[in-house]
Design a protein that fits this description.
With 426 residues, the protein is of the alpha+beta class. It has two domains: 2-66 and 101-269 and 304-425, Outer membrane efflux proteins (OEP), CATH 1.20.1600.10; 68-100 and 272-303. It contains ten helices and six strands, in the order H-E-H-H-E-E-H-H-E-H-H-E-E-H-H-H. The longest helix has 67 residues, at 105-171.
Length: 426
């Protein structure tokens, strides 16, 4: 009977090794810095932005081009009747003319093109920020999957220990065989949970690698754990960072573009003048003469006043939208900060109070079960209580990091980068 008991324990260990070995070989451990570097260098979604920058630069070049000089040829008094029949009385005028832009039109066009280029670069910054937020989320998913795998393996170990204890009790006739079968079923369910957790880890690994354009089977491991939780700056510091929030920066950039378009509309409403110089030849007399010309529109009223009024209204609308967005962002930041504090307090309370008590309870019930003081249901219930608390801590830690990631994305601030910079300076 003791031989059968040892054989059951060896079987549990062997099954664990079989489940672990294929996933340990060939695994690559990555930290968040490595993930960020790969994403920024290789993400396919960022490939379009260099072309957009080139287009913005080309638009600025185009805006700086002055009006071209015009060449005109005018022939008069030809193909008529009488003295103007044929070409004997023709007058031929060859002239060059040039439009001179007044009111700073060229400078206004250049400024508008540059502001549009700044907006395209801000779009790139926002795309990068969203991409880094997604990379952070997927890395957190991988780290959470790591913890769930570890928890499932620990559950399998506890199930194996309980099954071995039931075999020992059944071997000496202290417990019915139904207890052993019940714990065998619990161990088999734990094995399936391990397989499921590892499959979820593989899925998280593949989704993370897809961010830098790698497809197919991947076996990544998160080098950083969800716990312990990082420190949080005070709420006032988050409020101070709010003016640098990407959404508010976008409003400011669009407002600058609209203001430059106002100046362009004002410049386009000014009078352009045209100068021309040329030579005239009279076929009948054979005489030559110089020809000078000047023209300008009268513009008795501003021909661009509608565009100017529209651009001013757009600037006022952007300012109103920015003020409303700032209030909304402030409410989001404060709400996320309070949620982060609540998650932190709950995790601390569970880890410092509930988990130690649950571990002591399980150890007491396990020892008592071996001596026949507790039933198998008491043992299963104690194990479930302990593991449920550990799962809850993992879920709370995932929520904490995801909400912190959202808080960083809203304010354009990276706590991890600040911590690394502070460590480097020290």
């Amino acid at each position: 009977m003791h031989y059968r008991t040892r054989r059951g324990g060896f079987a549990v260990v062997f099954v664990g090794l079989v489940l672990v070995w294929p996933l340990v070989a060939g695994a690559e451990t990555v930290d968040l810095n490595t993930v960020v570097a790969r994403v920024l260098e290789q993400n396919p979604g960022l490939d379009e932005y260099p072309y957009r920058f080139r287009a913005a630069d080309a638009a600025a070049v185009q805006a700086g081009i002055r009006p071209s000089t015009e060449l005109s040829l005018e022939i008069e008094n030809v193909a008529g009747s009488g003295q103007w029949s044929g070409t004997d009385g023709a007058e031929v005028t060859l002239a060059l003319s040039q439009v001179v832009e007044l009111g700073g039109q060229r400078d206004a066009r250049l400024d508008t093109a540059r502001r549009a280029g700044e907006l395209s670069r801000l779009d790139y910054d926002l795309a990068r920020l969203d991409l880094l937020g997604e990379a952070n989320r997927r890395y957190l998913a991988l780290a959470a999957a790591e913890r769930r795998v570890a928890l499932a393996e620990r559950t399998l170990g506890l199930a194996g220990d309980a099954e071995q204890a039931a075999r020992q009790r059944a071997a000496v006739g202290a417990a019915p065989s139904s207890e052993r079968r019940r714990l065998v079923l619990a161990r088999q369910a734990a094995e399936r949970d391990v397989q499921r957790a590892r499959m979820e880890r593989r899925s998280a690994s593949q989704r993370l690698a897809a961010l830098w354009g790698v497809t197919g089977e991947q076996d990544l491991r998160a080098a950083e754990d969800l716990l312990p939780l990082p420190e949080l700056p005070e709420l006032d510091q988050w409020r101070e960072r709010l003016d640098q929030a990407p959404r508010l920066r976008e409003f400011a950039s669009r407002a600058r573009l609209a203001e430059s378009q106002i100046r362009l509309a004002e410049a386009n409403g000014s009078r352009d003048v045209r100068f021309s110089v040329g030579a005239r030849h009279d076929e009948a007399s054979g005489d030559q003469a110089a020809v000078l010309g000047f023209s300008m529109p009268l513009n008795l009223s501003n021909p661009n006043r509608g565009n100017q009024a529209r651009r001013r209204a757009e600037v006022d609308a952007l300012q109103a939208r920015r003020d409303a967005a700032r209030i909304e962002l402030l409410a989001l930041v404060e709400g996320l900060y309070l949620a982060l504090q609540q998650r932190r307090d709950e995790i601390v309370a569970i880890r410092e109070q509930s988990l130690p008590e649950a571990r002591r309870l399980y150890e007491e019930v396990q020892a008592g079960y071996r001596r026949g003081r507790y039933s198998v249901l008491d043992l299963i219930d104690a194990a479930r209580s302990r593991l449920a608390l550990e799962r809850h801590v993992t879920d709370l830690a995932v929520d904490f990091h995801q909400q912190r990631n959202e808080l960083e994305r809203l304010t354009g601030t990276s706590l991890a980068a600040e911590a690394r910079a502070q460590g480097d300076s020290q």
